[in-house]
Amino acid sequence: MKRKNQLLVASLCFMFVMMLAACGQSNEAQETSSAKQINKTENSQKYEPVTIQNGARTIEFTEMPKRAVTLNQHATEVMLALGLEKYMVGTAYLDDDILPEYKDKYSQIPVISDEYPSQEAFLEVNPDFAYAGWKSAFQEDAIGTFDQLEKFGIKAYLHQSSNIVGPKSEDVYEDIRNIARIFHVEERADKLIKSINNEVENIQDQIGSIDEPLRVFVYDSGEDAPVTATQNFMTELIRMAGGKNIFSDIEKNWANVTWEEVVKRNPEVIVIIDYGDIPIEKKKQTLLNKTALADVEAIQKERFTVLPLSAAAEGVRIPIAVETLAKSFYPDKFE
């Protein structure tokens, strides 16, 4: 009787073990089936090819870039603003600190160089996409020409609004939309552009109606003859802030003018661009010590506005630039 009981127990244990094994096989089969289904779904969501017109060049994207390198501040911040940091394997050439809201993202991305990297340093990160703000990035003494990069299998996008005469806000938005199309995040671009427009509109509402825009002179550099903004994006930013660039009639982005012409056009405000190694105070003293400018209204009233180059570029800092200018042009409107 005792032996029969032992055999019964052994049989029941064997049956229980077999049932567990069968369940395990069933679960494993289900997991394998689910994995296959996920892979099938992912494969069905193939990258939709994108064609981008970039100046005179047409760029065909048959797959999404996965190893992007950005060069120049405004290009880097556009990528970060669109939430594309996971595709960035390198960055280079900032003019200023990165915006606070992007610092955490930016800190995770390798900085290849403080300025433009050599082609060798650029290629070391194995990029498949290069996005630069200025055409100077795509030179032989920098990362290479468009043709050279194409031979390496690297797509290159030049921020178009920074490289045309007389860019407007819509030109900047077109660059943002193009980058979003390449990475299939068009909705993020729409949201970003709407946010920028709303911020600018709020600033302009505070300014209110203006009978006569302030006359504005942009001082970049130069002692014997000043270098000034003419029809670059600064003119658009000044307009949005309620001013008028006194040299906006010159049909190029930057120009050397004469101090005599500055006197003749008599600016009410002087915007000093802050960048590089020349301190703002030195630039200001250059203007104040220039005897030829003694009768200029902006000099007599010492009405200076400092604008960082990073804010003057064609990027996501449009509201920052407009607010900085507007508060300087019409301080009573913001009290």
TrEMBL record:
The keyword Signal applies. Keywords: Signal. It comes from the Bacteria. InterPro entries: ABC_Transporter_SBP, ABC_transptr_periplasmic_BD. Transmembrane segments: none annotated. Residues 1-21 form the signal peptide. Residues 67-335 form the Fe/B12 periplasmic-binding domain. Belongs to the bacterial solute-binding protein 8 family. This is Fe3+-hydroxamate ABC transporter substrate-binding protein. The lineage of its organism: Bacteria, Bacillati, Bacillota, Bacilli, Bacillales.
